[in-house]
Amino acid sequence: MQVLAPVLSLFRPPGDNLSSSTETAVQYHRLLSLLGAILVLALGALYDATNPAGPNPAWARLAVAGLFGGLFGLSYVAGGVRHHIAAWMRGVLYVLMGGVIVVAALNGFSGDYDMGVLLLYAILPGGVAIGTQRIAPVLWFLGVGFLLGAAGVLLGPAPLSKAATVLPSLATVAVAEGIAIQAYRATEGQLRECGERLHGLANSLSGVVFQAYFRPDGSYGSYFVSEHAESRLGLSSDPDDFYDGFVNQIPESHRDAFEDSIEAAVEAEEPWRQEVPFDTPSGERRWLLCASIPRRRDEELVFNGVILDITDRKDAEQALRKERDRFEMLFESLPTPVMRCTVEAEGPLIADANSAFEDVFGVEAASVEGENANELLLPNGDLPGENREQATEIDRRLLENESLQTEVRRAAADGPRDFQLQAAGRTPADGPPEFYAIYTDITEKKRYERELEKLTTRLQLALEATDTGFWEWNLDTDAVFFDEACEHLFGYESGTFPGTYEAFLGHVHADDIDTVEKRTRRAIETGKPYQVDFRIQRPDGTQRWIQCRGIVKYDDGSPQRLLGIQTDITERKQRAQELLRAKEEAENANRMKSAFLANMSHEIRTPLTSIIGFAEAIGDEVEADAEGPVPRFAGLIEESGRHLLDTLNAVLNLSKLEAGEAQLAPETVDLAVQVEELAQQFRPRADDAAVDLRVEANPVPARANEGGLQVVLRNLVSNAIKYTGEGGQVQVRTRRDDETSVLEVEDTGIGMDPEQVPTLFEPFRQASEGTSREYEGTGLGLAVTKRVVNQMGGTIEVETEPGVGTCFTVRLPRGADKE
Q1: Looking at the structure, do residues 387 and 434 belong to the same domain, yes or no?
Q2: Cβ–Cβ under 8 Å, residues 721 and 693
């Protein structure tokens, strides 16, 4: 097998998910089909040379050779042939056997024909046996071959005497072949069973089992790699690729040492053992233990071994080293005293101590080693609040429980001090019991506790002074504790509250009980602090508002107690209700104010319109008398009337908007059309003020109200002209962006301080304010503009700079384009 391995590897089939036995059968049958074609042609030529006169048709030889060659070729192109190549080969061998017997019979089994038949009859069953685990196909082939031979001898031209020699020979060969193949199959089955058991055992081990070989010519490789290679290492278990793939995954820093160790083991023919890091193809770092034992086999050295994953052990060792290093560093660097003692018959003897112990207790560790710890730290036998008997009791408890935490007083370098003692002990297998003791100085903490006790007393007094009481509810017993202040809140004399949760709920107003219980349950479920305001009824019938705050306390992960404070907030609630009533009254007054302004504006605007009309008529009638005072007075009346009308319109618009009476139903409006119309109206005014009014209007549909849009445009353009001096410029532009339709009004006027922008849209605000302001106006235009834009679903922005100008940008919802 090993000799044929290099040859058979040339005939390995491609990846068809074939089993290893089928793959081997394909390799053998390809080799046999190639050799069969060659031998058929070669033997035919040999027969022609030895018996040129005998019947031996060349076309028959070519046909049989073609069958072999065709099977060889089809095994490369047809997957079905590869999966059933043994059956195809048996068919070709049947044809070959029949053809040879026919040729031998036509030649009367004379000369070498009878020997050729016997030789072929003995060889071909071996080819039939390849690729099958059963003996039946071989027996069938032997039986059919015997029947064909018998028919050829009895029916052909050969003398009957040939039957006496050929048929017994065929029978002898058939019996010998059957016995030999049966024995071979039995041995092969035992070997296969043994191999399967070994493979199963290898694959059942937790590591990767392998068998590697090293030959004198320097070649190497693997005969076997268990299936765990893929799950443990991320590598294929294919023996041909495993070794190089494994070495390539070893980090370069360890690779040379790894290969050197293998070379040394091969050279010395000694067992090999190596621990090495390994990077899986997925990038995970693992640590492996590789071990194997060599065995000499012919000219090669075979290593049978296993690869074990020791990552957990390595991690544990590293963690242990780190823990040991940390402990030693912690032991020395802890700012609190630490000592290690061994417990002997005479008591706890100091074995080691850190530098903080030396500093606090004023001793050197080396000088006190072996001394009794209690005698060292309680030199006179006792201290105020502590004695040596108590220290001995602590030692006893430590030995029984192996750990404890308590407060002690010990003699430090600067006098007696309070410590929190934390100790942990153990009993080694090969020595006396020992323990570590940490002394945390709590002298100041104890002082603070005494101060805290004083502060707690003061706090209790403060709670009583602010109508605040403390309460606690035990969830296990349902007992409720009220301090004296809390009892007074509920109308009880000191010590008379019944002390149950049911009694507490009995005082809660019926409309508030559900809220109190829900908040309480949520606090118990979530563990979060809670607060709830509710009304109570005292035993004397009076009602008070109470604010309860509480927290949940746990014991072993379960809620055990609720505790907190309760405060009388009756006066606070009353003040809040008064403020609410005042707010409602103010809002109502504001609505009445808006309604009043709207009504008054209507009442004033009607006669004012008549006054403006009469002033225009008077001016028209006396137009010829240009030098008299009448035209001038008529013009003043008209101008003042229109100014007052503009003011009234602004007040009316603002009042409607504030009262919610303005109806600005949205529709699709072309901003360009609206801008052009307004520019025609304001161009005479701009010309009178020597201001260049320009329009850059592209068709831009917007969702807006046409009347509201005219209000916005008139206010913005009017202000721009008003605040722009002679020779200045006002630009009105329309455009669209991704989501809105945009209207811009920009001027080169006086501008304003950017700090004025936040209040610019408030009513009665102007760029110039006060009694000496330079520009006339009510300060309502921008307030109305802002509210109109908001009601149409838009926004308005301002960019301004003193002496440079101002730009108002209005963004409105986009409208649908006209088709």
Answers
A1: yes
A2: yes
